[in-house]
Amino acid sequence: MKKKAIQDYYEDSLSHCYGCGTNNPHGHQIKSYLEGDETIARYKPDEKYSAGTPDHVYGGMVASLLDCHGTASAAAFACQAENTSMEESQKPVRFVTASLKVDFKNPTPMGVELEMKGQLRSISGRKVWVDMSLTANGVVCATAEILAIRLKE
Amino acid sequence: MKKKAIQDYYEDSLSHCYGCGTNNPHGHQIKSYLEGDETIARYKPDEKYSAGTPDHVYGGMVASLLDCHGTASAAAFACQAENTSMEESQKPVRFVTASLKVDFKNPTPMGVELEMKGQLRSISGRKVWVDMSLTANGVVCATAEILAIRLKE
Fold first, then answer.
1. Name one GO biological process term (chains A, B) (predicted).
2. Distance between CA A129 and CA A127 in Å, rounded?
3. CB–CB of B64 and A58 under 8 A?
4. CA B60 – CA A14 distance, rounded (Å)
5. Which of A68, B16, B96, B114 has its CA 20 to 30 A from that of B31?
6. Which residue among B50, B59, B97 places its CB closest to the CB of A104?
7. How far apart are CA B105 and CA A30, in angstroms?
8. What is the end-to-end Cα distance of chain B in Å, rounded?
9. Measured between CB atoms, does B104 come within 8 Å of chain A?
């Protein structure tokens, strides 16, 4: 059976995001997974999402991928900190972005599967801070940090 | 005659950005203008760019709009600091993003024209820092700061 992604556990009513919503047929529907103590997502953008030059991915896409991967990571890490999981949690777990900072280190190449990774920095109540990277062919194109806030039920 | 936007002065070879490229028919083609000492852009996202809920705009779009408006603002402010303009500059002026930080203050409503504004914080050589806001119906949905770097010729 195919492993379910973090986003697959979001409530239906909160799954319309263009970046990662399973209920948005037009969007990227990126899928993030918890693997040990880090999160990972892979995505190859369509060519239309080009930067100033056609051979690179535009910054907005890079930010979008890291934003959606960041909130998913926060959800998974919050569950992990409570010794549960997205699957086993008795309550819906959904985070939104309070702050996102992206540092663009190298141009992001087009036509390549991008890899986003996340690591937990800290948790305080409903706030979760996650550090991330986006790499292409093993080269770090961007790093990012997100402060995500858990939605109240 | 219709006023030309900052992006209309980008070189053709650097105008493929999904966010603001005049040569990208699939993208947003946002248009930024210098008005006095600030920059302004207005854009109404298509409904497909929804957040977790359909009545809000997803964070990636907010970041994208601020990213493209930020690099455009940097270009206009750099010209202004040299007592020239995008139109009159003897050299092509194009900035790329080194760092973008977005603080999400309120959910961004769908179906509303969003207004992005930029103000120059400082200039040092090829580096320009710009402070921005994104408002909807007069409510600040996000603030942002960008460090943009001028491309060498």
1. fatty acid metabolic process
2. 7
3. yes
4. 16
5. A68
6. B97
7. 24
8. 30
9. yes
